[in-house]
Amino acid sequence: MCVLDKLDKYIIDLKGLSEHSAAFAFDLDNSFFNLIEGSEIRNGEVHVDLSILEEFGTFKLIFTIVGFVYVPCDLCLDDMQQSINYSDVLKVKFGDKIVDDGSDTVIINEYQGVINVSWYIYEFIMLSIPLKHSHPIGLCNPFMVEELNKHLCIKKEKKSSVANEDSDPRWNKLKEL
């Protein structure tokens, strides 16, 4: 079975919507994140509300994403919980060919009229995670922190810069202020 087949519950038939608005809800768990190859997210529990508004041939997909995921800590590499609270809008239009160039407007094939929102949901979750993610101070794996401290070069640099400060009498005068 293809990965995309497993994500078929995230396919929205825009052409088949009977009203000018619609609402969908998705609950993501570990199985969703396991389907995304190369994902930095190990697992999590995320709720997604998707509202769709049609205005003059353009569909406005409004995503509200709340929950938490587990990502590796940048410092100790243990999993850490990262809360997710994110909203974004994606505009979708019908056209002759599919265009998804990274802008906020996606063009989908007019004859098919469907869009799979699974990748957009994943991207929005990734956008909500800070670039640097680490445990609060004191909660990192103590063994890993100890190993990292053994290999830091900063300690040596600090000692040499302190020695340079003491050798220049101007710094001593400034310290008296």
Please, could you describe this protein's structure?
The protein is an alpha+beta fold and 177 residues long. It has two domains: 3-135, no CATH class; 144-176. The protein has helices spanning 3-6, 30-35, 118-128, 142-150, 154-167, 169-176, and strands at 11-13, 21-28, 43-55, 58-72, 79-95, 105-109, 114-116. It has a five-stranded mixed β-sheet with strand order 2-3-4-5-6. It has a two-stranded antiparallel sheet with strand order 1-7. A hairpin with a 2-residue loop joins strand 3 (43-55) and strand 4 (58-72). The protein is elongated. The chain starts with a helix and ends with a helix. Residues 155-160 have low confidence and may be disordered.
What is the radius of gyration? Answer: 25 Å
Main sheet overview: 5 strands, mixed
Element-by-element helix/strand order: HEEHEEEEEHHHH
For the biggest β-sheet, the strand order reads: 2-3-4-5-6
Distance between the termini: 73 Å
User: Helix- and strand-based class?
Assistant: alpha+beta
Helix content: 25-40%
The average pLDDT score comes to: 83
DSSP strand content:
35-45%
Q: What is the tally of beta strands?
A: 7
Number of domains: 2
Spans of at least 5 consecutive residues whose pLDDT stays below 50 are 155-160
Globally, the shape reads elongated
Number of helices, counting only DSSP H or I runs of 4 residues or more? 6
Please provide a brief summary of the model.
This protein has 177 residues and is α+β, with helices and mostly antiparallel strands. The chain has helices spanning 3-6, 30-35, 118-128, 142-150, 154-167, 169-176, and strands spanning 11-13, 21-28, 43-55, 58-72, 79-95, 105-109, 114-116. The N and C termini lie far apart (73 Å).
